[in-house]
Predict the structure.
Amino acid sequence: MAKAWIGVSGWTYPGWRGGVFYPEKHPQKRELEYASGRFTSIEINGTFYSLQKPASFQAWYDQTPEGFRFSVKAGQFMTHVRRLKDIEGPLAFFLASGLFRLGEKLGPILWQFPPNVMLKDDRFHRFLDLLPKSTREATRLLARHKDRLRYPEEAEPPRHLPLRHAFELRHKSFFDPKFFDLLRAHGVALVLAHGAEKAPYAEELTADFIYARLHGEGKRYAKGYPPVELQAWADRIRAWLKGGRDSHVYFSTEAKAHAPACALRLLALLSVEARRKQDDPLPPRSGR
């Protein structure tokens, strides 16, 4: 049965503290535990900025409840610095940084590309051929680089699991039927990057799952997503679930203080069981 994985992008935002989302004087080291008890999924952003350690992934696994799921943002070194050129080695380092410690809690890997990366050569074709679609395929890739890995013990995942990938593309050259067909051929989701004022948007379904990032930029979203839009997203998600597609939806709004409240309200609209206690109120819409 398809599931709705709803949450926020990251969990260590200072503006969520002091009663805005996290309770007053809530210890920072327990923020993930608190957030994962209220959402069904969270997007890990720290992996975008630098390679993490296996111990970090293990800690994130241990601090979250059964049935929770993470999405993991791939490193900017591959997407923004190398721009997919000669990245088999960096990809191996990323995969062997402890990613598979998340086990059954590992959701899609998010590949976000900068606005000035466009579709102009065969690098995306080669990258899609390279991307492992399962931990079994990843093991074969990692074996080619095992002698160079920082954590060679991570080269053999303890469990064989499928690997899902999602591309967030911000140049209009990608929004072409032929490229959408290429993504479909590889089972890679086109990220529905909603509300980003300077980025193109297409609600094109290219995989057996949905990945949406609700950016909500501009005055319309100064207090988060309005109720009418949250209802519209709830209706979309119900349709996707009915069609058998898991739906991963993360709030990464420009007015970031409102992201947790938006995610909780969307969960409520979907009648998804939020794990918060019955007497635990929703964060205020106005933030602080």
